[in-house]
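Before the break, one more example. Copy the sequence into your notebook; we will annotate it together after we see the structure.
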Amino acid sequence: MRLVSLCFLVLTGTVAHAQQFTALTDSPLVTTPGDSRSVNLIDVNGDGLDDVFISNGLNTGQNNELYLNQGKGVFKAVEGDPIVLDHSPSDGTTFADSDNDGDLDAYMVTWFGRPNFFYRNEGKGTFAHLPEAVTCSAGTHSETAAFGDYNNDGLADIFITNSGGSDLRNFLYRNTGNNTFVKESASWLDDQTPSRSANWADYDNDGDLDLYVTNEEENKNTLLRNNGNGTFAKVTDDPAVMESQSSITASWGDVNNDGFLDLFVGNTGNFVPDNNRLFMNNGNGSFTAAAPGPINSDGGCSFGSAFEDYDNDGDLDLFVANGFCNGLTVNFLYKNNGAGIFERDNSALDSYITTCSYGAAWGDLNDDGFPDLVVANCKKTPTAPEPNHSVFMNKGNGNHWLKIRLVGTASNRSAIGARILVKAVIDGQPVTQVREITAQSGYCGQNSLTAHFGLGASVQADSVFVKWPSGQEQALGMTAAGQVITIVEKKP
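Here is what the structure looks like once it is written out:
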């Protein structure tokens, strides 16, 4: 595997750091062009290494891509499997173990009135298409989907967003077991707005998953608060849902390590830059718009986004993918100063310039303890050539880390919605970091299901605490850094 290092100009007023990443250049993962949409970093064959799925959205139809991780950042393209042979205009994709049999299944949506696709994992990373599962043969104009167990019954349900066609209503399918799903109907599903991303998150820390949906074409976004009984209440009087913009992506993350998930929203003005938003969680079920700074004043035509601690210093940083913008298009990487205040880092990546980027996701592709970044690139115009994907391998630094994998038993096996708290002393201060396991970390993006924690100079975590969707809690004491641990939910 050959890596190439390029130079990039550091802009005035931004953070200057040593280069953190080098671009992967001679892998099929970065030499296969496409009009790409979703990036999912998921272990489809259960070997402990994150594989890479990329959907392609060419309007005339195009096969998708699945790359199996061979170790040390080497990838092999999958050929002949149904999941890479549908030749559809694909969009967002979400992976979770929907039938709790020990492997990750996939739900992929399409646009242009084509049917969506449910793929059951056959156990070794091969897939079977189940045409009767979820939306059947009905054509949709769907943007993305997200697995999430909204009723905490141990089965991962599916929420699907739609942005076109005669009926703009979104879909919620309740999982009844054995890969069968029932379409739900409720008043809060009746809004007919063009929706883009859907993100499940327990923003009010009450033990059930709430839902945030971004809406484009100058519509207000939607925040649905879970009532705990299988129903939702629409929040209408919070800053996170009061602006009328064209929002595409959203990402949840505790950026100031206060125990509550904050919210990033990415906007676009249809080939015209628009400012993004960061909303800080007040801890009482409400949000406050973050103070002015680069993250909400840089403009951009933002499509994908994902939080991750790329430098292992104990706080969440942010990558934003920009596309379909006039003039030069540049992606954004923001470094967190530890208090939830961000600055542009224009020296960490080989290049920020993009033809047109869509989804993005983080995961430790070479298993060295430092998260790597994969970006799906797209055609900016119908006549533009199909670009290659971008993969940035993290060179690492002297900071320590801990990675945690969860296996649900009473909860859904993928542990979607589970919350992990890791406490450690970082820079002389006690810090508690929170990660919530999610099947959609931004529009058309899914970070690794292995939770990653940077520990700075600390060689250990003082404690690890897991709160499962079932309500069960598990605690571990002192845990050495530099390892991957698996925590299996205790059976009730």
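The chain is about 0% helix and 45% strand. Residues 422 and 464 are 5 Å apart (CA to CA). Try to locate both features in your own notes.
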